[in-house]
Hints:
Layout: H1 3-7, H2 13-20, E1 40-45, H3 49-56, H4 59-67, E2 70-75, H5 79-84, E3 90-93, H6 98-105, E4 109-117, E5 121-125, E6 140-143, H7 149-161, E7 171-174, H8 180-185, E8 191-194, H9 200-205, E9 208-210, H10 217-224, E10 233-240, H11 241-246, H12 248-275, H13 285-297, H14 309-324
Parallel strand pairs: 1-2, 6-7, 6-8
Antiparallel strand pairs: 3-10, 4-10, 5-8, 5-9
Helix pairs in contact: 3-12, 7-14, 12-13
Amino acid sequence: MSGFLRTCVALTVAALLAFLTGCSAGLGGPASSRSARDGVIRFTFAPDPIWDYMNETGIVDEWQRDTGYTIETSATWDEFGLFAGGHADIISSASFEVPGLEEQTQRETVIIGKYNAERSRILVRAGDPAQSLADLRGRRLGVFTTVSGTLVWSALVARMHDLKLVDGDFDIVVADIQNLSNLLARGEIDACICYPDLSARELRDGSVRPLYDGKSSADLFAELVAPGHDGPMGNVFVARKDWVDGHPGEVSAFLDLWDRGLAEWQAHRDEMIERYPQHFAVATPEDIEFMKAYVAEHDWVTDEVRFDPQWADDESSIFDLMRATGVIGEEITDPQFLPTKGVQP
């Protein structure tokens, strides 16, 4: 087993990651036939508010009429399982987990689009004087998994502070992601790698606060490694390479649909949060308003799904950082990217 897979012990967490990075809600549309056909895109995705909005407002139906393509969806947290079985053409994954996806499924893949940035933050209790993770050495750090966003933070901590995050300089406490910020507020852990939409109540009431001026792992990565870059991505769209090679029209149409979805998010972001509060882990009117304000300031959804070669190079640099800091082995290769920005089918 490779060093990467020893780190990424259970790739099924990527299904949970899809929820954590903003891919959140039951997919509308017909269930996938799970048999490949020309003109049909088998799209398996964890529940997502933008996708639900496009279905409920008729955008997907309009796209199918205009393009002549059909998109069949399977709503599941086990995206990797369906992909491994050959029952999905496109799924979502964190970009930095794609090499593990390929090794686990034995399927050659290509990243065709970007969706949202890895948005986890380091939170501490409001009264803690710590200014960075360097001040928390030896203390209890809550995580929901030792893979996922923890991989990125491991590389960042090594780069910024010359510390080892997992099995090293911190007392790692693995706990349910939805309870981490509450455990922190109660003093059962000293810090956490937490997601803002799963920490809304504690952030709103001021019992916890973020380190690094509230910057996410993606923000810090951009500052340290790739200025101006919007990744690394907590979710990219990943497809089977053989399917992509044989279906350029479907790929382009799929990206067009998601560009429309991203535009709808920009235009109706508050409405989507109000309409699907459960997908942002908020329920009370106060938390909903907090999340609307938070997302307005720290939006993790990209402006466009297509990318150019420079963006692909910048995104690949997360692997350079993880290799240089020993988070993954030197044998792990970068994923393949398909730049299509400005390219017509």
